[in-house]
Amino acid sequence: MDDGVRRSVLQLLGNAMSDISEDCWAAGWLGGTEYHVPELCRRAAESGRAQRWGAGTVTPDRALGLVYLTEQIGCWADLDAAGVAYVPHHPFPIPLEHLAVLDRQ
User: Fold this and answer.
1) CA angle 27, 86, 96 (to 5 degrees)
2) Section 20-41 average pLDDT
3) Over 80: is that where the pLDDT of 74 sits?
4) At a CB cut-off of 8 Å and minimum separation 6, what does 47 contact?
5) How far is CA 103 from CA 1, 38, 39, 52, 71, in A?
6) Long-range contacts for 15-18 (Cβ within 8 Å, ≥24 apart)?
7) How confident is residue 97, by pLDDT bands cut at 50, 70 and 90?
8) Is the predicted pLDDT of residue 3 greater than 80, yes or no?
9) Taking the mean position of all CA atoms in its chain, how far away is CA 9?
10) Alpha carbon distance, N-terminus to C-terminus of the chain
11) Please, are residues 40 and 102 in contact by the beta-carbon 8 Å criterion?
């Protein structure tokens, strides 16, 4: 995959992660999305069960779609410092404070 396609897929992935944040929290990119969405997707894909987050859920089908994109480009996405584009992010292992937030949900 060439760099231009990889950048496009990264932006698509970031938008999909942002959509989950919006659907679950009415927040386009809630702080921690770069850790929470990958972990919720991992849990949903492995268990086959929807994962609750805020007022919504991450379904296994949606999770598998995002996992597929990450496998194609080798990373997840994070919002850049300017808040206008997405940059590569490697969330695993998830920091304990983010796991604690998810486990309290």
Assistant:
1) 65
2) 94
3) yes
4) 60
5) 36, 14, 11, 10, 25
6) 15/86, 16/65, 16/66, 16/69, 17/66, 17/76, 17/77, 18/79
7) confident
8) yes
9) 13
10) 38
11) yes
Averaged pLDDT for residues 61-69: 98
Strand-pairing partners, residue 57, are 52
Residue type, 14: G
Residue appearing with tokens 């770069």: 34
Helices within 26-105 (DSSP H only) = 33-47, 60-73, 96-104
Coil/strand/helix, residue 104: helix
Contacts of 44 (CB under 8 A, 6+ apart): 50, 51, 58, 59, 60, 62, 63, 64
Give the pLDDT score at 104: 81
Q: What is the mean pLDDT of residues 34-46?
A: 97
In this prediction the pTM is: 0.92
Residue 5 clears pLDDT 90, i.e. is over it? yes
